Amino acid sequence: MKVTVVGAGAVGASCAEYIAIKDFASEVVILDIKEGYAEGKAMDLMQTASLNGFDTKITGSTSDYSKTAGSDIAVITSGIPRKPGMTREELIGINAGIVKTVAQNLVKESPNVILIVVSNPMDTMTYLAHKVTGLPKNRIIGMGGALDSARFKYRLAEALEAPISDIDGMVIGGHSDTGMVPLASQATRNSVRVSEFISEDRLQQVVEDTKVGGATLTKLLGTSAWYAPGAAVSALVQAIACDQKKMFPCSTMLDGEYGLSDICIGVPVILGKNGIEKIVDVPLSDAEKAKMKESAEGVKKTNGLLDV
Ligand SMILES: NC(=O)C1=CN([C@@H]2O[C@H](COP(=O)(O)OP(=O)(O)OC[C@H]3O[C@@H](n4cnc5c(N)ncnc54)[C@H](O)[C@@H]3O)[C@@H](O)[C@H]2O)C=CC1
Ligand SMILES: O=C([O-])CC(=O)C(=O)O
């Protein structure tokens, strides 16, 4: 199993580290345009191998895509992150050009690759990857909902004063400050609805904190987050590499599902060796349906800024 990670920055390096530590991939190639940067990150990570007990071989490349040839999975994290006060959508001007070139270069070297798009604005970058590569829809996956759901569970555990392992919950919709749809009415603590444990107001606060999870961290860090994003990407990569058939909300091209078409947006999917193996239709309340529709309108507006 060969995995390429494009972008050796904060998220790319974190994701490569988690993949290596889990020790399921034979090879990870990190690629960046900054001279020597990916090679340096790869060497540093390899020097953790005997300490962390993994055999994954990590190598770096400065813009040489021939080193990525034959990748089974490629993760696109290249591009700029936001600064405090910015929205993810504001990154489109720079990141669209980067994601377009990177996706095309990856597919040229690895025609059977499964792409995982991370660069923001992620739903629109996932849509762009479709338009510029023409890969089948099961092989292009946007990572956002897995991270947003992890943040939702963190906030729920905090509110319920419960261990996170007791909590289950999911966030669908667009990966944006306003577009996320945390499915609060369906979240549970060991099968019991979380509304049995906290007030409606507290639950609403959890929802709002979840939606601005990325912005909150950006304000604290001065740039956007990387540990949880890296862990979320590595979980998707592992589900595909190990054919786990796990369910995650991911951004995927919809063709009528959830009443939406010609859009990539977060919905629950089953991930296995073929990438997205199934889109799961979860029954939504009328309020959740309305939020999903509004979220899709936002993503479509951003897609409209693309030159495709
Ligand atoms: N979808 C999600 O849930 C998340 C998305 N992100 C997004 O991921 C992206 C990366 O974030 P960070 O790693 O924090 O940024 P970073 O600035 O630390 O790293 C980005 C790297 O991309 C490289 N790069 C730029 N153009 C390139 C090109 N054409 N080819 C190869 N490499 C190139 C840069 O040299 C840099 O090393 C941002 O767009 C950010 O908004 C970040 C966190 C979560
Ligand atoms: O907030 C950002 O810009 C980065 C991101 O997508 C996240 O951490 O959710």
UniProtKB/TrEMBL annotation:
Keyword field: NAD, Oxidoreductase, Tricarboxylic acid cycle
Pfam families cross-referenced by the UniProt entry: Ldh_1_C, Ldh_1_N
GO BP term (any one): lactate metabolic process
Binding site for substrate: R82, R88, N120, R151
GO molecular function: L-lactate dehydrogenase (NAD+) activity; L-malate dehydrogenase (NAD+) activity
EC number: 1.1.1.37
InterPro entries documented for this protein: L-lactate/malate_DH, Lactate/malate_DH_C, Lactate/malate_DH_N, Lactate_DH/Glyco_Ohase_4_C, Malate_DH_type3, NAD(P)-bd_dom_sf
Record Gene3D superfamilies: Lactate dehydrogenase/glycoside hydrolase, family 4, C-terminal, NAD(P)-binding Rossmann-like Domain
Ranges of residues in domain Lactate/malate dehydrogenase C-terminal: 147-301
Coiled-coil positions: none
Residue ranges of domain Lactate/malate dehydrogenase N-terminal in the record: 1-142
HAMAP family, alphabetized: Malate_dehydrog_3 (MF_00487)
Similarity field: Belongs to the LDH/MDH superfamily. MDH type 3 family.
PANTHER family: L-2-HYDROXYCARBOXYLATE DEHYDROGENASE (NAD(P)(+)), L-LACTATE DEHYDROGENASE
Protein name in the entry: Malate dehydrogenase
Lineage: Bacteria, Pseudomonadati, Bacteroidota, Flavobacteriia, Flavobacteriales
Gene name, Swiss-Prot/TrEMBL: mdh
